[in-house]
Each structure stands twice: as structure tokens, then as C-alpha cells.
Amino acid sequence: MIAFTDLGLSKPTLSALAEAGYTEPTEIQEKSIPIIFSGADVMASAQTGSGKTAAFAIPIIECLQDPDDKPRALVLLPTRELALQVEEQFVRFAGDFGLRTVTLYGGTGYVTQTKALQRGVDIIIATPGRLFDLLQKKLVDLSMIEMLVLDEADRLLDMGFMPQVRRIVSRLSKERQTLMFSATIDERVHRLAAEFLNSPVTVKVNSQRIDPAAIHQKVYHVHEFSKDELLINLLKENQMTSVIVFTNTKRRAAWVKDRLRDAKIQAEEIHGDITQSQREKTLSRYRDGDFPVLVATDVAARGLDISSITHVVNYDLPECPEDYIHRIGRTGRAGRSGVAFSFVSEEQRFLVKDIEKLIGRALESNKPVPPPKTTLPARAFARRMA
Question: Which of these CATH numbers, 3.40.50.2300, 3.40.50.300, 3.30.565.10, 3.30.300.20, describes 215-385?
Fold first, then answer.
């Protein structure tokens, strides 16, 4: 294993890394940083928690060095939560250089963001929708962008952002360096790379088998109507103090939060219908330990880095096995161990096989939970399944 000093980093960056507790580069950092320094385009694949944000943030900061009046680096990513997480990394490492960063995302007013742009920035971190809106209003100038990052490229595709991404990229210089990071590299991502990158160097880390070894994973085969009772029992029996519960829909997240509160368990929810300011307040309170259970949709599956999370519960299994990896990767961070429980109803059993194929081993299975003695009224059932 090499050290950060072997990567040719400057003293301010090495000092910031040491202060942040980074002792040695992760595999994706070790492989990507020298290639980025060479000026080549990069197509990189790495699992969640691998340190990929620092893998592009550090060399971008090193390459920019001195502040300027116009933005020279642009990071495009799919969600507001991920944008805020990436912003933290850039602020952490760019401080001694005096480089200025602005984060642009929807769900909040334009005033603060446009004022930051007017003051002058070096690095823009943005979701495609908000950045394209600002471009149309002629409130942002991308003509001097030297380095472009497409972060979580697979999710940019999945969430339908490519029309905006294409319009944004069309405003950039063709002389730029482009870096594309994705949890998976499939045929769609390859086509995207061919469209935006110039003879990219491919970097793959942990691509053959994804196995979060620090996370104890267990499956509970359970009737749909028994999930609430099982969740409440697990929370109480295991004395969980920092838990994130994933559901597949916004309405079900609200349902689970209400059932937990009925059981006298403090819980809050975040999903796409919650305003950005409220989501930030909720996450801040969760980080501070004000309540033990956060119920969320996949808006929190990527970019949420809270090292104190001890347990993840998949109230619903995700349809995509890669999303399972991102969800459980919210625990077992910063060298800690974690626990992931997944509730599997009869209708979702086929999804377990896809997950096991992806991680390369069978999941530990608990004995089936018996169905409830009573069933929900039809109206409640319809609300719950929505």
C-alpha cells in the first residue's frame, strides 16, 4: 500500500488529509489520482464507501490551485443529498488554497445560489435540473470549465437526467478533461462514456464481487402485514440507537414513521415530497442523535455519510440489487462494523437471488415470521402498498 505522499500531493493537501484522519489512499484513490494528474479522461467504477469522491476532489483541487473569477471545474450528480456530501469533501480539502465552491440544486430558492455565483467561484457542484435552469436564465458562465465530473453516472441515467446533461455539456469547451464515476459500468454507461469522454482510461475497483464484509447481513422472510411488528420488535430488542429504514415509496415511508411513533419510537422521514430545507434540518438532527430512526426512500441511499449509523433495515427490498449495496453501505463506515436487516415478503423472494449473485454469497436467513392473526382493512392495505 502506498502513502498519500507517494501521489505527488502538495503540503496543504497532505495537511488537510492528515487533519481529516485520512492515513493512506483507498484503492480507487491510488489508481485514479495519478491518471487524473496526467490529464487523461477517466471512466471509473467503485462501490459505495470506497472513497471515490476524494479520488476526484483531491486532484481537481491540486490542478486548479489558485482562485479565479470564473468556474473551472464542474461536478454533475443526481441528488441534492449527494451534492451536499461532495461539497463537504471539496470544502475540507480546498480551504488552504482559497478555492471557492458553490452547490446548486433544486427544492430551494435561487437567491443564495445566484449571489454565490456573482461573488465568483472556482468549483460548481450541481444537479442537472437546477444548473440548466440557471444556464437558461444566463446566471452562470461555464465557458472556462477545464474539468468535468459525471458522478454516479448510472443514477444520472436511471433518473432521466441525460437531456439536461447533454445540453449542459454542449456549453463546455471540447478541450476539457472529463471524469466519469459510476457504481456499475454496463452497456449504457459505456455508451455514455463514448459520447462524453475522449479515449478514457478505465479504472475498476472491486468490480468482480461486491461484499461489504464489515456489515452483518440478515434476511427475514415475513408476511407483508407482519413487517411493522417485526421492525418494532427488532428496534426494541437490539436497542438500536442510530438506524435508517428504507422503503420503496414515499407513502410507505410516512406509514412506517407513523407506526413507529404509535409504538413510542422516535422517528422522522425524508423523501422527495419533503422540502430540501426540512430534509437538511432532519438530517442535521439525526446526525446530532436527536432521534434514533430515520425512515427514507432511496434519496438517502447514496451520498449520506453518517459514521454513527449502526443498523440499516430494508423494510422493502429494492428492485435493483446495486441499490441494496448502496443502502446497506450507509452503515459499516469509517472502519466500523454494521448490521443490515432485510424484510422479504413472498412477492420479493426472487430479488434475494439477484442480490446474492451480486455479492457472491448467500445471505443469512432467519426463520420465517408467521403471518398476523388479523389483516388490514382494504383501504389501509391500499395505502400501505402504494
Answer: 3.40.50.300
